[in-house]
Structure formats: structure tokens, C-alpha cells
Amino acid sequence: MFLSIDKAAEILKKGGIVAIPTETVYGLAGNAFNETAIAKIFAAKGRPYFDPLIVHIAEFSKFEDLVTEIPENAKLLAEKFWPGPLTLVLPKKEKVSNLITGGLSTVAVRMPKKQIARDIIKLAGPLAAPSANMFQRLSPTSVEHVVEQLGGKIDGIVDGGACEVGIESTVVGFENNMPVIYRPGAVTGEMIVECLGVGSWGVGSSKLSSPGLLKKHYCPSTPFFIGLPSEVPKNCGLLAFGELPVKSGEFAEVLNLSEKACSTEAAANLYGMLHKLDSCKLDKFFATLLPPAGLGNAINDRLIKASCR
Ligand code: AMP
Ligand code: MG
Hints:
Layout: H1 5-13, E1 18-20, E2 27-31, H2 35-45, E3 54-56, H3 60-66, H4 72-81, E4 86-91, H5 98-101, E5 106-110, H6 115-124, E6 127-128, H7 143-150, E7 170-175, E8 178-183, H8 189-196, E9 202-203, E10 224-226, E11 236-240, E12 253-256, H9 263-278, E13 284-287, H10 295-306
Parallel strand pairs: 3-5, 4-7, 8-9, 10-13, 11-12, 11-13
Antiparallel strand pairs: 1-2, 2-6, 3-6, 4-5, 7-8
Helix pairs in contact: 1-6
């Protein structure tokens, strides 16, 4: 089940699917130019075909190979934030499979930073890789999370330890040349407008602009709610951020995303703590949102989606 980088690359080149670590979350990778491999990814995850995959590259020249043209603003963002947790959406070349893009005329591309991912991509890439979890379940930030959801359904896993960033990449497209954030992440809107010297960024919310962005996503099995209950019920948990609320002693289980209220630390802990609370056999658990700025927006986005039923 656990593979070396070379063995993983060999399996990927033959059309297999392998979970690989990146700095955001573990991805379930397949050769981007092998439609059988792509179909296997959708089948293993139970992911609907309308939810497009991100193609992962290790060299800028491969970006030019996948998209019809790279506008100046996309170049600036790639120069500043690649390798890193930023995905760019641009019109695709014909050779990019419609299976990857969910039938869209655009393709989403990212250059990850984690060395293991880069080594595998250099040997076997470009790789299409969504998060290595079952559709609509919690994203994986450790090999244990991957084994729990996909063990037995995939051709192997490369162990790269914990994912440093801990939440999925920021997905950015362009409408009338202006940046539009389809999914918030560690590269924040503030960082994007500063890099481009533009006044503001758009927020892509429609299903049409980014079909995978369903309201319900990233869900634990235990009922999960945002906000604090006025009366703390028996056997319930709390996912806190910063200073603990007065009633914290009444919860059966309390985990703190970051005692020092640091959003970077909170992002790295987010999925691990959601997985942990989900495994505690609680009747339900609650979380408080972070201040809505920078990375706090991305974490809140995941918390709100995790609480949707
Ligand atoms: P995941 O691979 O699970 O991190 O999810 C990838 C997400 O990227 C999808 O659910 C979409 O929201 C977004 N995405 C991928 N391709 C496109 C695209 N061509 N246009 C807009 N959004 C995209
Ligand atoms: Mg995902």
C-alpha cells in the first residue's frame, strides 16, 4: 500500500491511481492524459463527473502546454505564488480531456510546492489530482485519513507526513481580465490584489463558474453546527479558536484550532481536528468561526460547508 516515489511514478505511468502528499491536502493522482486513469479517480471517490479536477504540474512549460493562452495577470500570479497553494483556471487546449474539466472549456492548473509531489509529477506528470477523500467527506491531511476513506480502492499511497498548509488551494479564474476567487484558500484575496495592483477581486459563487463548489462539502459523519449552543447538551464536542468560551468546561471534548489565535496554525490543524472530533462518538459538535479576514475566510468557508446537511 505504501509506495516509494519511483514505484508511485511507475504505477501512474501505467494508468494507476495513487494518493500523494501535497502542501494543501493529500491528492488522488492519475495521469492527466490517460482517460482510464481519470475515470478510476472519479469511481474511487464516488465523485460526480460534473465536478472538475485540478491538473498538477512541476514546470511552467507544462502550463503553456495545457492552456490556450496565459494572460498577463495569470503570469503575475504564477510568478508570485507558484509553486504553492494557488490554482489558476484558464481556457483549455483541445488535448485536455473533457473528463478532467467536467465538460467546461477551461482547465484548473496548480504547481504544488511539496518536494515529494514535485518529484512524482516530474517523473509521471502532469497529474490530475482531486483531494484523496470520498466525495463530500472530510479532506485528508495525513495518510491515516486517506487509508480510512480510500484504502483498498486505490493502487497505493505515498507517505509525506502531515500537509503543511492543511486546506485546499485557492482557485482563481479571470472574468474581463479581473481575478475571481472560486474557492478561498491560503493565497488570500488581499494577496492577489496586491500582486496584480487591482482594486478588488470577484467572488465566483455560481455553480456555472465553478461546478464543484457545492454548498455541502467536506462533511464529518457526526452532526456538526456553527456557533455555541445556549445550553450545552450532553456528550457534545467543541472546535474552538483562540481563547476558550466560558462554557467550554461543559463540553465532553474540546479541541482548539489555535490557542494563540493564529489562522495559519488553524488551517494546518483544521481537517485533523475535524477527523478527530468525528471519531470521538459524540452526539454532535460545534465550532466557532474565525475573524473573517485573510485565511480566516478560507477556514470559515470549509467550516460552513462541513456543517451543511
Ligand atoms: P478538489 O480537486 O477536490 O480540490 O476540487 C477542485 C475544485 O476546483 C472543483 O471542485 C472546482 O470547484 C474547481 N475547479 C476545477 N476546475 C475548474 C474549472 N475549469 N473552472 C472552475 N473551477 C474549477
Ligand atoms: Mg475535494
